[in-house]
Amino acid sequence: MMVHRVLNRLIPASGLEGQEWEVHVIDDKEQMNAFVIPGGKVFVFSGLMPICDGDDGLATVLGHEIAHNVAHHAAENYSRLSLVLPIAYLVSFIYDVSGNLTFTILDYAYNKPGSRKQESEADYIGLMMMAQSCFDPEAAVELWQRMEKTNQVAIPQFLSTHPSNHNRIAKIQEWLPKARILAEQSIDEGRLFYGDSGDTSKGARFRN
Q: What is the pTM of this model?
């Protein structure tokens, strides 16, 4: 299975081998999405597969999603929320009883830039992870180029929790020289993590 095969190469590079990983492939061809929640729960929608165009493209997406867990972004979001709420309530009490304007301002001034920073961190960590796992890091640029073509209407970056595809591609291209070196070192060291055999008895532990 493609998802298991890709994960079995990525997980040893993530440092999260001790988790009991669960993979759920959701049959929904309209959704081009995947996510990984803390504890090793992986969800991949079947609509993502065509645009991934193979193992390297899927490794780009799953590496990014695993990277959110490696960087403890869920905990950061909880901490950020605990800071935002008291400020929002105070400003609402003084200026805006409904609180709608206050939360909107805080969202655009604080939450969205923080989320974009996390997305950029996950792009970087995921790229290095896939390179260390002997996937082709060039595939990350190609994937986001396909995504850019698929998204007919681009949301302005300041309105989004994610970097624009154009900015994302530019940053990944900056990181590619380091990713290529890491990939070459991993190949030289023979660190191809069981990807050819797809043997899930090694490396990551999957729950059936």
A: 0.73
